[in-house]
Design a protein that fits this description.
It is built from 13 helices and 13 strands. The protein is an alpha/beta fold. It is globular and about 60 Å long.
Length: 353
C-alpha cells in the first residue's frame, strides 16, 4: 500500500463502493468515443479497425459457436456489439446503469437487432443454468467485487461444451515497476474532487479513491493549474488522470492532501484484486473448468502485421476482403504467448458431460 493510500485510510472513514459506482457511472465514454464496432461501423480505412476486428474474431474463433452469447461487463457494448453480426443472439450485462444506457444507444445507432442489454452483476447472473452457448468478457472479470464468484457463475450458465473467452488485465505485464499511481483534480457541484488511483504488482491489486473537498479560492487556483490530458477524458470538464510523478507528485501528492486536510468533506473508494497467470488458472480450475488455455491477445500479432502491410502500401489492396482477412488472422489466437503483455487472452471450456 502506497503512502497516499495509507494516509487516506488512516485519516478518514472511506465509504466503500464498487468500481461501477465510483468509476464507470461517471464516464461519458468507457471506450474511446470513436471505437469501431461500438460507436460506428468498422471501416477498412482505419488500421485500428483491422486490429480490433481481429480481436473480436479471435473471441469468435475461441468460442467455437455462433449460438447465444453472454457478455459480462459489456461497458459501452464491447465485444457484444461487434460480435452480434456473427452469432444468433448476444446479451450484455454490466453493473453500471450508465454503461448499459450507453450500450443500448450504440446498439440503436448501429441498428443491431439481436443484441440486448441489462443491468446485472457478473457474480450473480440472473439467468438459468446451461442457458448460453458461450460467455465472453472484455477486461471485466477483474472489475467485479468477487471475480472468483463470477467465474463460477459463468460456468453455471454455460451449456456443456461451451467456453468462457475473456481478456484479463495482467499487471505483471502492464506495470513498468512494482506500482503505478495517477491523480486528477477538478471542480464539480461547488466542490473540488481529487481522484487517486493505484495499481500494484504484488499482491496484484488496484484501488481508487475520490476525495471531495469543500471549495476555497486557494483550492480553485491550484485546480486551475492541474494539466489537462489531451484526448479522451471521463467528462469534458475533467482534466484526466495524470501519473503521480515529477511536478505532479510535488504539487498534487501527499503534501497537497496534508495542506487541505481540513477541507475534506467525503471519501469514497473501491479495491479490486487482480490475477496473475497462475492464480487465474487456479481460479478457473476451482470454478469447474477442465480445459483452460491462457494466451496473449491476437492484437500483438495483428498490430505488427497490419501496420507493416500499410507501410508497404498493400493494406488498401485488401480492403474488399477486410472481414475475411481479420477472421483468418484470428485463427492464430492460440499461438500468442502470454508472457510480457498487459492482457491475457483466456479460453476455458466446460466439459460436455
Amino acid at each position: 500500500m502506497r503512502p497516499i493510500e495509507e494516509w487516506i485510510r488512516g485519516n478518514f472513514r472511506v465509504e466503500w463502493v464498487d468500481s461501477a459506482a465510483l468509476r464507470y457511472d461517471e464516464m461519458e465514454h468507457q471506450a474511446p468515443p470513436d471505437l469501431g464496432g461500438v460507436y460506428r461501423p468498422y471501416t477498412p480505412e482505419r488500421i485500428d479497425d483491422w486490429i480490433d476486428l481481429s480481436l473480436v474474431m479471435a473471441y469468435l474463433s475461441a468460442l467455437g459457436t455462433t449460438g447465444r452469447i453472454l457478455d459480462i461487463g459489456t461497458g459501452d457494448g464491447w465485444p457484444a456489439l461487434p460480435l452480434a453480426p456473427y452469432v444468433e443472439q448476444v446479451i450484455g450485462i454490466d453493473r453500471s446503469r450508465k454503461r448499459i444506457e450507453t450500450a443500448e444507444a450504440n446498439r440503436a445507432r448501429l441498428r443491431i437487432e439481436n443484441a440486448t442489454f441489462r443491468v446485472a452483476s457478473g457474480d450473480d447472473l440472473p439467468f438459468p443454468d446451461k442457458s448460453f452457448a458461450g460467455v465472453v468478457a472484455g477486461t471485466a472479470i477483474e472489475q467485479i467485487p468477487d471475480p472468483a464468484a463470477c467465474l463460477r457463475e459463468a460456468y453455471r450458465v454455460l451449456e456443456p461444451g461451451g467456453a468462457l473467452v475473456a481478456t484479463v488485465e495482467h499487471l505483471d505485464g502492464e506495470l513498468a515497476g512494482p506500482y503505478a499511481e495517477e491523480v486528477e483534480l477538478f471542480p464539480e457541484g461547488g466542490r473540488f474532487l481529487y481522484r487517486y488511483a493505484v495499481k500494484e504488482r504484488r499482491p496484484p491489486r488496484e484501488a481508487e479513491y475520490l476525495i471531495a473537498f469543500d471549495s476555497s479560492p486557494e483550492m480553485a487556483e491550484i485546480a486551475a493549474n492541474f494539466p489537462r490530458r489531451p484526448g479522451f477524458t471521463r467528462r469534458e470538464e475533467e482534466p484526466g488522470m495524470q501519473p503521480l510523478a515529477g511536478t505532479i507528485a510535488e504539487t498534487f501528492g501527499l503534501p497537497f492532501l496534508e495542506r487541505f486536510r481540513g477541507a475534506v468533506a467525503a471519501v469514497r473508494g473501491f479495491e479490486l484484486r487482480h490475477f496473475t497467470a497462475g492464480s487465474l488458472r487456479e481460479a478457473l480450475d476451482a470454478a469447474g473448468f477442465a480445459r483452460v488455455k491462457i494466451r496473449g491477445p491476437i492484437t500483438r500479432i495483428a498490430s505488427r502485421f497490419f501496420i507493416a502491410l500499410h507501410e508497404e502500401g498493400l493494406l488498401a489492396m485488401l480492403t474488399p476482403r477486410f472481414a475475411k482477412i481479420c477472421r483468418a488472422l484470428a485463427q492464430a489466437w492460440d499461438e500468442v504467448p502470454p508472457e510480457g503483455g498487459s492482457l491475457l487472452f483466456v479460453q476455458a471450456r466446460k466439459e460436455t458431460t
